[in-house]
Amino acid sequence: MNTEYSKVYDKESLPKTKSFTIFFNRKFKTEHWMLLPSMILLALISIFPFIYLVYASFMDFMLSIDHPTFNGIVNWKKILFSDTFWHSWGRTAIYAIVGLLIELVIGVGMALLIYELPKGKNLIITLWMLPLFVAPVVAGLLGRFLLNSTYGLYAWLLGLIGIDAQILGNVKTALPAVILMDVWEWTPLITLIVLAGLQSLPIEPLEAAQVDGAGYFQRLFYIIFPLLLRTIVVALLIRSMDILRFVDTIKITTEGGPADSTKVIGYYLMEVAFKFQDFGAAAALGLTMLFVTIFLGKNFVKLMTKGGE
User: Fold this and answer.
1) How far apart, in Å, do the first and last CA atoms of the chain sit?
2) DSSP 237-270
3) Do residues 100 and 243 lie in contact, with contact meaning Cβ atoms separated by under 8 Å?
4) How far apart are CA 129 and CA 107, in angstroms?
5) Measuring CA to CA, which residue among 93, 130, 136 is closest to residue 253?
6) Which strand (E) or helix (H) includes residue 98?
7) Which residues have C-beta within 8 Å of that of residue 176, sequence separation ≥ 6?
8) Calpha distance 141→159 (Å, rounded)
9) Is residue 114 classed as helix, strand or coil in its secondary structure?
């Protein structure tokens, strides 16, 4: 072995000192040093807005005031003791749980179907991925026109079977309609991630199970799903982070109505900031969203790590 490029360390001959052991175990590699400048830049870009957000959450920060003044926890009280705040989080929870569940079931099912196709995979994937290339605003406009009670195709078809055509104008049906619009647009992303996970699965366990006489569903539940757990968790993590910022489709279709039935937390933040122009309260509201995002991300990563053990 060429000692100029590699060295073999005899651990028994190393000094038995705590400091040397820590340094040996935590030795930085070349790629870590190469990533360091970009990590520092990213930290600087992220830290300043965060500090300013915290600062704004304790200030009387409105466009009508020339110089923001310190008002303590007034903004936090305004947000935390508001019924609209908690109702918005409740709708967001419903939207996230129902939407993610539907997207997961359809996305994973479609990925398994495409994976098993003998021919035409590329064509099916291309057609299935088309909604991903549609901007959320355009998806909202499309849903708005299709559900219009006067000339909308879906409203007309539902009217034929006796269902109220005022879908986006009804408190009971507005939120489910918006959820389905999101499902239509983002389910292909789940399919794409899960399909990539399927294609990277080791073939040996599947072949061994097939030789042992295991059926398709036995292989699916005892081999494929356990191996895909981390991939599915990554897909859910990406979508859950995006759902908290969901405002585009709601802005185009319902604007939070009717009777605030579709006012999720992201739309409420936009309303507080740009409609009421209360940037101090909006900063406090944004920090609550940040805390929830960190909590969800931490637990998803913990689940992913647990699934990989």
Assistant:
1) 34
2) HHHHHHHTT--HHHHHHTTT-STTTT--HHHHHH
3) yes
4) 11
5) 136
6) helix 83-116
7) 98
8) 21
9) helix
Distances (CA, A) of 131 to 185, 238, 254: 5, 17, 21
Per-residue pLDDT 10s for the chain (309 aa) are 444 444 444 444 444 444 444 444 455 677 778 888 888 888 888 888 889 889 989 988 877 777 788 888 999 998 999 999 999 999 999 999 999 999 999 999 999 999 888 888 889 998 999 998 888 888 889 888 888 877 888 878 877 887 767 888 888 889 999 999 999 999 999 999 999 999 888 888 888 888 888 888 888 888 888 888 888 888 888 888 888 888 888 999 998 888 889 999 999 999 998 888 889 999 999 999 999 988 888 888 787 776 555
Quote the CA–CA distance of 265 and 288 in Å, as a whole number.
10
* Closest to 116 in 3D by CA, of 186, 229, 216: 216
Place of tokens 């709708």: 91
Q: What residue type is assigned to position 102 of the chain?
A: I
Check if the beta carbon of residue 231 is closer than 8 Å to that of residue 87: no
Cα torsion through 126, 300, 42, 47, rounded to 10: 140
Residue whose entry in the numeric block shows the structure tokens 């419903």: 94
Q: Residue 59 in 3-state DSSP?
A: strand
Distance (Å, rounded) from C-alpha 203 to C-alpha 8?
35
Per the listing, tokens 């406090």 go with: 284
8 A C-beta contact, residue 235 and residue 107 = yes
Judge contact between 247 and 266, C-beta under 8 A.
yes
Backbone phi, psi, residue 78, to 5°: -60, -35
Full-model pTM:
0.80
- 170 phi and psi angles, rounded to 5 deg: -110, 135
104, 236 contact by CB (below 8 A): yes
